[in-house]
Amino acid sequence: MSVERFETVIVGGGQAGLAMGYQLARRHRPFVILEAAEQVGDSWRNRWESLRLFSPARYDGLPGMPYPGPDWSFPTHQEFADYLVDYAARWELPVRTGVTVRRLWHDGERYLLDAGDHRYEADNVVVAAGHDRIPTVPAFAAELDPRIVQLTPADYRNPAQLADGDVLVVGAGNSGADIALDLAGTHRVLLSGRHPGQLPWHIERWTARLFTPLVMFAFRHVLTVRTPMGRAMRRQALAHSGPLIRIKSADLTAAGVDRTARTVGVTDGRPALADGRVLDVANVVWCTGFRPDPGWIDLPGLDAGGDPEQRRGAVTGRPGLYLLGRLFQDSLSSSMIRGVGRDADHIAGQIAGRARTGRPAAQPLAA
């Protein structure tokens, strides 16, 4: 097995990992970014075709490079994926694609990361691979008639994947509402689940330009773990899906989407609702959330998929181990494109502060 040693290894080459790389490079600290996908941006590129970002372009840039689009436009997922490629190239970030970290552990002196026949040793590790990556599906999904097509948001790309007949979308949060609306033009769609509420304005109308700056400021500076309001919001955000951002209930109604009770089980191979109805559908799309993928982390307290104690990304009791891009890590913006840069800046400052004297510095950022 070949071995390389770095001061810092960043696991994940999405927006969080790239922002982390920028902040370390700005401080001339040596690092490498390991990305499992074959190309930077694939985590965005491989999503459903109609997906667009919820935040306007003026809030979609990473540190050092604004998003190159009209301020109040809403980039597609493909456009943002391309932006990430350009960002990594612009700052000459050392991203190694196609590298899957299969184990992270500590030998008592440093962190070790096994990636196939290659091992990385590091004083610091930043886990920026995305906290919730595996779609959750209820256990009773396995009892559905095998002729029913079942997908998750990770699988769904466009309506052509579905069979003729009705579609049940389970989960009425942002993903569920987006996919339900996408399917309403070609299928009869039933949307199952609790209504999570909605923003009281349309984000793509000119009036949103009055509210959005205030909301973004609150997300970054008011709704943080250091304020009572922020801590209350954090509990809410971790327990339930957030309110609908782009789509309104009226949009779903106008498109012909039928709201139904919660899906609670299976009867005779068909989905059963809390109100006693059993639905005869040809397709089910499970928009029931995501869970962590901790199987590669071999560190006590972190390998069970729980929420380790951390402060602004620094894991308590694990010097040199950091988390980045997690939901409400420090503020409501921590998992958003706009928020990862600030959190990465803080972590980079901590890494620079604990760097060993005489450790060779990386090359500065490209001009």
Q: What would you say this structure looks like, in words?
A:
This protein has 2 domains: 2-133 and 291-354, 3-Layer(bba) Sandwich (FAD/NAD(P)-binding domain), CATH 3.50.50; 135-286, FAD/NAD(P)-binding domain. It is 25% helix and 21% strand. It is built from 8 helices and 18 strands. The protein has helices at 15-26, 42-45, 77-90, 174-183, 208-222, 228-239, 249-254, 337-354, and strands spanning 2-11, 31-35, 95-97, 103-106, 111-115, 118-127, 132-135, 149-151, 167-170, 189-192, 258-260, 263-267, 270-273, 283-286, 290-292, 310-311, 314-315, 321-323. Strands 1, 2, 3, 4, 5, 6 and 18 form a 7-stranded mixed β-sheet that branches. A hairpin with a 2-residue loop joins strand 5 (111-115) and strand 6. Helix 1 (15-26) crosses helix 8. Mean pLDDT is 90; it is low at 357-364.
- Major β-sheet annotation: 7 strands, mixed
The first-to-last residue Cα distance is: 37 Å
Quickly give the CATH architecture of the largest domain. Answer: 3-Layer(bba) Sandwich
Strands, count: 18
**What is the name of the CATH class of the largest domain?**
Alpha Beta
CATH level-3 fold name of the largest domain: FAD/NAD(P)-binding domain
DSSP strand (E) fraction?
A: 15-25%
